[in-house]
Amino acid sequence: MVRAGQPGAGGRGLLLRQLGPGRAGPRHHRARHRRARRGPPAGRLAAGRLRAGRRRPVHRGGGRDRRGADAGRRGRSVPAAAQAPLRQVILHRPGDSPVHRLAPQAKIVAAVVAVLCVVATPREAFWAFGFYLLALVAVWAVARVPPGWFAARSVIELPFVLLALALPFTGAGERVDVLGVPVSVEGALAGWNILAKGTLGLLTSLTLAATTAPHDVLLGLRRLRVPAVLVTIATLMLRYVEVIAAEARRMRVARVSRGDDPRFLWQLGATARGVGALFIRSYERGERVHLAMVSRGWTGRAPGDEVRAPLPERSAPALVVERLAYAYPDGHQALFGIDLTVRRGERVAVLGPNGAGKTTFALHLNGVLGGGSGRVEVAGLPVDAANLREIRRRVGVVFQDPDDQLFMPTVRQDVAFGPTNFGLRGAELDRRVDEALAAVGMTAFADRSPLHLSGGQRRRVALAGVLACDPEVLVLDEPSANLEPVARRELAEVLLRLDRTTLMVTHDLPYALQLCPRSVLVDGGVVVADRPTRELLADAELLARHRLELPFGFRLD
Ligand SMILES: Nc1ncnc2c1ncn2[C@@H]1O[C@H](COP(=O)(O)OP(=O)(O)OP(=O)(O)O)[C@@H](O)[C@H]1O
């Protein structure tokens, strides 16, 4: 069912293959040797010596000295592009001016009114266009955004400028001589109309974008009561743009730190391959975001139009998995027959080496992956197409990377996403969201953008988004990954307070011991051991056979 979106190695391998050979071509090596023969520039040597002498490097010319210091350390040159600060956003220019502080809905209304005025102005009212431009320049001055910033971004208008410049010569009607060239009066006016109105419209939009963060624009639209479906579409588009921009930034860093410099013509091939890889990666990330949405009940249809699932027997175990086997669409078989029964209220750790099939298994528990063989039942209810909505309400999956899960403009809206899909509205929805945020200690962040939170806070919000669906079974994929020790401990406290059946996929063996009395060891797509966690972790031979090991200095008492 799902191909590239799976958090697997397929896409990553492809990316490495695509980037690898391109940047290490013979011409690239020749250029490097030429540079090596010439010797490093003075700035580089100076910085290298200063570093060796343990003195602060003197910054002559910004990035050059830093670049030299790095080159000295690694023994090869790094292009300046690697050192350039990475711009977080292309259109937004954060600031604290009165314009930035204005309510986003007020700015949206002002921008729309301004554009309408520009469009409605007769083309011969030259003074009016001059007035609009002066007004915009005044706003830029108050917002402290230099006109050059807008000029640089106005290049997208180039095709329209060319059209406007061509019209006086191609237009029909009366012609007048200008420096001996016959010019159409109607064409010149039409060109002016396009140029003046297009430029002012673009500058107005850029002014809004420059002074309003993208998520505030969405917030403004909601406050203006723009239909929810339009805001949702805008939100998804924004999320996708962010996905592409973030992937582009990561890939740029990865490329330039390995010697690529997009300014040089001979790197064009590598850059082009990078753009291709960028789209593949963005597609994969976009699909993971989609999987995370699906696992929180998103179907694209209004809730409540499905047949309700039959209530299961209360005595049925929380999870029954029998002979579960699964091959990805590219033919790679990840699961070869998983058997597992989990009782209600149990906390079970799923351990195993990289590529063992843990995530693939976890994604079967609420039907995000399916179509293989075997049986999965949740509280007596088979995981199949007829029960999917109910299964997803009962089994909440917290994804390995919180960025796959968080995409709404505010924390509160993101946490409300799942329960809304399951049909909750009004006071009941608010109560669920408040309780979930309180459970993970994120109440104070409810109105913040999830994208402005730290990694640990995002992980908590991702957990809250699943808790708000009130699932009976919680599936956590690597909950402690990338968490600092305190955040890791705090998350453990949150999880221990939750009274739910929990399956925790993890490489963090001490965390498994702390949180889960029982552990299953998965390798090669099957369960190879199922024991009390302490007993399993004490079996050093078993752990070694399956590439697991306790952290240095950790002892089981
Ligand atoms: N989308 C995909 N397409 C093809 N194969 C995939 C895909 N996703 C994962 N795989 C492969 O399936 C196998 C199991 O992957 P899975 O992500 O389930 O392992 P894991 O135990 O969770 O690994 P890790 O501990 O590294 O996260 C791996 O060999 C992986 O390369």
Please specify the SSE layout and strand pairing.
Blueprint: H1 9-23, H2 26-38, H3 42-52, H4 63-74, H5 80-83, H6 98-101, H7 104-120, H8 126-143, H9 147-153, H10 158-170, E1 175-178, E2 181-184, H11 185-211, H12 214-223, H13 228-256, H14 268-295, E3 319-327, E4 333-342, E5 347-351, H15 358-364, E6 373-378, E7 381-382, H16 388-394, E8 395-398, H17 402-405, H18 411-421, H19 426-439, H20 455-467, E9 473-477, H21 485-497, E10 501-505, H22 509-515, E11 518-523, E12 526-532, H23 533-538, H24 540-545
Parallel strand pairs: 5-10, 5-11, 8-9, 9-10
Antiparallel strand pairs: 1-2, 3-4, 3-6, 6-7, 11-12
Helix pairs in contact: 1-14, 3-4, 7-11, 7-12, 8-11, 10-11, 12-13, 13-14, 18-19, 18-20, 19-20
Bound molecules: adenosine-5'-triphosphate.
Describe the structure.
With 557 residues, the chain is of the alpha/beta class. Among the domains are: 98-212, no CATH class; 319-545, P-loop containing nucleotide triphosphate hydrolases (Rossmann fold, 3-Layer(aba) Sandwich). It contains 24 helices and twelve strands. The chain has helices spanning 9-23, 26-38, 42-52, 63-74, 80-83, 98-101, 104-120, 126-143, 147-153, 158-170, 185-211, 214-223, 228-256, 268-295, 358-364, 388-394, 402-405, 411-421, 426-439, 455-467, 485-497, 509-515, 533-538, 540-545; strands at residues 175-178, 181-184, 319-327, 333-342, 347-351, 373-378, 381-382, 395-398, 473-477, 501-505, 518-523, 526-532. The strands form three sheets. Strands 8-9-10-5-11-12 form a six-stranded mixed β-sheet, with helices on both faces. α21 links the parallel β9 and β10. α3 (42-52) crosses α4 (63-74), α12 packs antiparallel against α13 (228-256) and α18 runs parallel beside α20. The two termini are 45 Å apart. Adenosine-5'-triphosphate is lined by residues 3-4, 6-10, 328, 330, 332, 334, 352, 354-360. The chain crosses the membrane at residues 125-143, 150-169. Residues 39-50 have a biased composition (Low complexity). InterPro entries: AAA+_ATPase, ABC/ECF_trnsptr_transmembrane, ABC_transporter-like_ATP-bd, ABC_transporter-like_CS, ABC_transpr_CbiO/EcfA_su, ECF_ABC_transporter_ATP-bd, ECF_CbiQ, P-loop_NTPase.
